[in-house]
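Quick one, probably user error.
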């Protein structure tokens, strides 16, 4: 068993942990990053499947994600815009595909008016929410006690309007059924992107990608750390006191003054804390759970939808794949579509055989793009729910009432133990941008403590 001593031990080599480690090293502190997997990146993972480069995890950059944009520039990476020329597709309740351009999809004038009215109201409510302190709003407890679905249905009896407004934060982002998340949690999701309107604007949220894949961010951050990153080292025990911490992994022990847990909160219980964490943390972490979404990659010899005048942008709250996009790689002749199947729909398709699941999903994509979508040359499902060291996607969120009850304690250090990950972020919540922000924040706190 190897034993080393550092100023700070970081558990998790995702964007948050690697950002924190780099910031701490810049400040003159020594670090060790322990990663359970055989790779860095956490929920960022770019891999080659059957000859196709696929972004299995996170991949997009939006204009508000300034921390990520700064990091990408600092690392010397190039970006490119998502393909968006041509018509989008919307499948309505009757099952018919409608082509359209512009922001508003083809619904009846009455439904369009309801969506516009409620979007305006939601933007006003979101403007009152501080994404770093959503629990501080005077109506936080009230908004946290009602589900997102119930609140919307109390505003209108237009089911199509409700379904379209709800899935933007429910199925599409928090990846849980809309009855399982609170209005406050939904408002936080929107506030983390600047507004509800930003969140539902695909051209904003899914603006750019990194040439070669977003996992290059953690790969290059880890490269800067050199031999201070240790793979295949899941931390089993963390002993802590006012004097410091001792992290015991499978093949090594690290003694340090402070620790950063840079992994999803649902994984904290995989570590035996000695002594146990306080009651507050035990209770709080039980009210956080991951969502569930399958990211589906379908690669074709050509981006055939472009020849039809389609942008590749498609969505419908009535489809198995509730949204899909042109995800073709920069400079490649082949075309790639990426689709998403989440929450209850994802549960359902995993009750099927792999072949039947593939057929059901491709059939859903064909409703947007035509029969050509049924025959990809490469097909792959990103199933983060089966990942031992992630257990869901995209991030953890609270159950009803949890955010107003526990939110203010989420980032609070416990003695020498600090917490940093995208699941805890305000701006950039559940995105790489939020992970970087949290890594910077916790590193700055530790530096201030050391220098105090």
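Nope, works fine. Designed sequence:
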């Amino acid at each position: 068993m190897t034993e080393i001593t550092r100023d700070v031990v970081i558990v998790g080599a995702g964007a948050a942990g690697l950002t924190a480690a780099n910031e701490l090293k810049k400040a003159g502190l020594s670090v060790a990053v322990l990663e359970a997997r055989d790779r860095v990146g956490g929920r960022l993972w770019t891999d080659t499947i059957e000859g196709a480069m696929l972004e299995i995890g996170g991949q997009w950059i939006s204009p508000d994600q300034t921390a990520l944009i700064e990091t990408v520039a600092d690392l010397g990476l190039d970006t490119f815009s998502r393909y968006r020329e041509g018509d989008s597709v919307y499948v309505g309740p009757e099952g018919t595909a409608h082509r359209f351009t512009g922001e508003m999809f083809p619904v009846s004038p009455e439904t369009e008016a309801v969506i516009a009215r409620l979007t305006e109201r939601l933007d006003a409510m979101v403007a009152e929410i501080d994404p770093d302190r959503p629990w501080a709003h005077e109506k936080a407890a009230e908004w946290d006690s009602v589900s997102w679905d119930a609140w919307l249905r109390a505003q209108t009896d237009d089911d199509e309007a409700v379904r379209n407004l709800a899935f933007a934060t429910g199925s599409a982002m928090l990846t849980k059924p809309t009855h399982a998340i609170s209005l406050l949690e939904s408002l936080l999701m929107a506030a983390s992107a600047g507004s509800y309107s930003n969140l539902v604007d695909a051209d904003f949220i899914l603006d750019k990608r990194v040439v070669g894949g977003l996992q290059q961010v953690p790969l290059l951050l880890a490269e800067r750390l050199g031999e201070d990153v240790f793979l295949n080292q899941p931390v089993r025990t963390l002993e802590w006191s006012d004097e410091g911490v001792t992290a015991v992994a499978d093949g090594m022990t690290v003694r340090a003054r402070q620790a950063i847990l840079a992994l999803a909160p649902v994984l904290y219980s995989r570590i035996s804390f000695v002594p146990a964490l306080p009651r507050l943390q035990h209770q709080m972490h039980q009210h956080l759970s991951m969502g569930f979404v399958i990211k589906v990659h379908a690669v074709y010899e050509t981006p055939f939808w472009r020849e039809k005048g389609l942008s590749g942008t498609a969505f419908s709250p009535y489809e198995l794949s509730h949204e899909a996009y042109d995800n073709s790689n920069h400079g490649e002749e082949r075309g790639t579509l990426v689709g998403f199947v989440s929450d209850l729909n994802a549960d359902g398709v995993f009750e099927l055989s792999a072949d039947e699941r593939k057929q059901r999903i491709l059939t859903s994509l064909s409703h947007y793009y035509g029969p050509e979508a049924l025959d990809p040359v490469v097909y792959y499902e990103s199933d983060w729910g089966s990942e031992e060291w992630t257990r869901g996607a995209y991030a953890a969120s609270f159950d009803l009432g949890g955010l107003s009850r526990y939110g203010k304690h989420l980032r609070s250090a416990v003695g020498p133990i600090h917490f940093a990950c995208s699941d805890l972020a305000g701006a950039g919540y559940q995105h790489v941008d939020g992970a970087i922000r949290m890594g910077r924040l916790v590193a700055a706190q530790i530096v201030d403590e050391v220098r105090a």
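The first strand starts at residue 2 and ends at 11.
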